[in-house]
Amino acid sequence: xxxxxxxxxxxxxxxxxxxxxxxxxxxxxxxxxxxxxxxxxxxxxxxxxxxxxxxxxxxxxxxxxxxxxxxxxxxxxxxxxxxxxxxxxxxxxxxxxxxxxxxxxxxxxxxxxxxxxxxxxxxxxxxxxxxxxxxxxxxxxxxxxxxxxxxxxxxxxxx
Length: 159
Ligand SMILES: [Fe+2]
Hints:
It is a single chain. This protein has helices at about 15-25, 30-40, 45-50, 55-70, 70-80, 80-90, 100-110, 115-125, 125-140, 150-159. The protein has about 160 residues and is mainly alpha-helical. The chain has a single domain, classed as Hypothetical protein af1432, CATH 1.10.3210.10. It is globular and about 40 Å long. The chain starts with 12 loop residues before the first helix and ends with a helix. The relative contact order is 0.20. The chain binds fe (ii) ion (FE2). Fe (ii) ion binds near residues 16, 40, 41 and 137. Pfam families: HD. It comes from Pseudonocardia xinjiangensis. This is HD domain-containing protein.
């Protein structure tokens, strides 16, 4: 993931993953949520993307993480784009927190979630976790951040 560019962001995919995982650990998250934060963009890795070439990265990532770590972490990975769309639709301050790239991709991802989509999403028992993960995702783009080492993050992710 190091040196794999992150679609115009200021950090590469490895730094982004480590920062997201570190924010999850700092929030006292359980292992499945740390794992999902760490791996939420794993569907952007070429060998994972290739498993579902027509699907958006969150779906390839969800399938991969479900196989690796189970349904809970997999659902969280698969929901990080819907969580963004739901947050845009429900929190008037949220859009201003997104990076320019993330604002641009919002349109490609379907724009703000519809009322029905938000309602269905919020009914899921992991919706609050998915929104926490999404906010860590949005913050994990800081070139000056000092994330935890990968060994410590894997310990926290694997319980
Ligand atoms: Fe991300």
